[in-house]
Each structure stands twice: as structure tokens, then as C-alpha cells.
Specification:
Length: about 280
């Protein structure tokens, strides 16, 4: 059992939680909590840490109030036990659940997610669905990014493309907000969003920019064909040069004195409108 915060493993673990640079260098990130551990893909897991209280609960209560799947999964790995005090020091949450793990960063190929064009030239996934993506430019709020991944999974999107200036997707606050969707929604970080937009448009994918001065209401275009929604920075919106590359501007009508919506809320409305249209098709 590790009982000192001066322990080298604890110092490195704390640094992985706090420092994006170290995460990038080691290609590792940290997830915390029972659900995140339970849903973590086995092939991603590199290290597991538990608190002494968590281990006690798992041993005594797995068949009763504790999720038995957690005990079964825990037994598959060599794990380190931390005292409750040390675990609290490492944890990024106010009330730690007592389990966290170090995971390998996933890497995705856009071409494999996109699949190929059908005989009519419609770009679709390998499952036969028209592609649906979200593009994010310089989003800064961890909660917004995490919520977009979570809502996106619910709406059935095929992935998220984001600029390198977007908040680190492996930030613990982003991870928590995804509620596990980080494991199932592919994502790509690009240096040139304009190049990505051009790539998608060359594949016949319509790119819709959410703009307050949009030319049409968001529910008018046909999203049953391959589509991508372009969402900008929370404070500044899309850069003019980026917005100009969109196939069409769309807007979400506002009642009352509301000028605009939270970026995650706007993205969710657009994604679910696309899901609604495809469900009704």
C-alpha cells in the first residue's frame, strides 16, 4: 500500500492528471470513478489504482450493494492500493469514488470512420449510414466539449474534429463530462481546420456553420445526406475565414431576449435534428 504523496508513482500520477504536456508525451491519460473504470476498454488500460476503502468495500460488498462487475474487472489487473489520504491528493474530484486508471490514448483514422461512397456518391460509414460529424473551432470550456461528445453519442454522430487550440480532450473535466462517451466517439485533433473542411466537402459532405446571421433556420436543410456541423469558440464564434468555407449558414431562432445558446446546447440541437430527420427517413 502506498501511503506517501512523495512516492514516485504518486507524483507521476498527479502530473498526468494535471499536465496536458506530460499526457501528450506519454500518450496516456487518467480516468476516475466506478463507471469510467467499468466501461474502459480493456485494451486501453495500463495501470489501475484504488483506495483502501474502495478495496474494502469491493471485497465485502460486491455481492450486495457494490457492483459485482467492478470486483470481477478489478481482479483482471494488477492494481496499486493508495491510502485514502493519498488517493484524495491524486484525485481531481471533491468526493473521490476510490478507483482510477491510466489509459492509453486512442488514435483514429478519419478515412476508416468515413467508410466509402456508395454507388450514388453518398459518403457513408461501413454500416451504411450517411456520415455525421461535428467540427469544433477553438472551444475552451471543458464541460462544453465533454457534453458535445456525450450528446453526440446519443444522437449517433460518427466523430468530432477539433482544432489543436480546443481544450485538451483528455482534461479530467472533459473526461467526466463525457460520462464514458470518450470511449465510443471517435475524435481527431487537426492543425488546419480549413483543410479538414475542404477534405469533407470534396467527399460530398455538406458543412453547416452555426451562425446568428444564418441564411436559413436549422431545421430546413436536409441532413439525411452526409453532413457536418461547424461550431465556434464560446466567446468569439467562428473565425470569418472558417465560416466562409461552410456549405451553408444555419441559425437557431431565438425567442425573448436571448441572443444565443451555450455552444454545447446549440450543438445538441443540431445533432438531434439530424438524428430526427434520419429516423423519420
Amino acid at each position: 500500500m502506498i501511503s506517501s504523496t512523495a512516492n514516485s508513482k504518486v507524483k507521476r500520477l498527479t502530473a498526468l492528471v494535471q499536465k496536458a504536456k506530460l499526457r501528450r508525451e506519454e500518450q496516456l491519460f487518467v480516468v476516475e470513478g466506478v463507471r469510467m473504470f467499468r466501461e474502459a476498454p480493456d485494451s486501453w488500460i495500463r495501470e489501475v489504482y484504488v483506495s483502501e476503502t474502495f478495496l474494502h468495500r469491493c471485497g465485502r460488498e460486491c455481492e450486495h450493494t457494490f457492483d459485482p462487475a467492478i470486483g470481477e474487472k478489478l481482479n483482471q489487473y494488477r492494481y496499486e492500493v493508495l491510502t485514502d489520504e493519498v488517493f484524495r491528493k491524486v484525485s481531481d474530484t471533491q468526493t473521490p469514488q476510490g478507483v482510477l486508471c491510466v489509459l492509453a490514448m486512442p488514435h483514429y483514422e478519419l478515412s476508416s470512420t468515413a467508410g466509402k461512397a456508395d454507388c450514388a456518391g453518398i459518403w457513408q460509414t461501413d454500416t451504411g449510414r450517411p456520415l455525421l460529424l461535428v467540427l469544433l473551432e477553438d472551444m475552451q470550456d471543458p464541460g462544453n466539449l465533454g457534453t458535445i461528445l456525450r450528446a453526440g453519442e446519443g444522437a449517433g454522430i460518427d466523430g468530432v474534429i477539433m482544432t489543436r487550440r480546443t481544450v485538451d480532450i483528455f482534461n479530467p473535466k472533459v473526461i467526466r463530462a463525457t460520462m464514458g462517451s470518450i470511449y465510443r466517439v471517435p475524435f481527431w485533433v487537426v492543425d488546419d481546420l480549413g483543410g479538414a473542411i475542404g477534405f469533407l466537402k470534396n467527399k460530398g459532405i455538406q458543412v453547416y456553420a452555426a451562425q446568428m446571421d444564418g441564411s436559413v433556420d436549422y431545421d430546413e436543410p436536409d441532413y439525411t445526406r452526409p453532413a457536418a456541423f461547424l461550431i465556434g469558440n464560446e466567446g468569439n464564434g467562428l473565425l470569418p475565414a472558417t465560416a466562409a468555407q461552410a456549405s451553408q449558414y444555419i441559425k437557431i431562432p431565438m425567442a425573448g431576449q436571448v441572443e444565443s445558446l451555450n455552444a454545447a446546447a446549440a450543438a445538441a440541437i443540431l445533432m438531434y435534428e439530424a438524428a430526427r430527420q434520419r429516423r423519420k427517413q
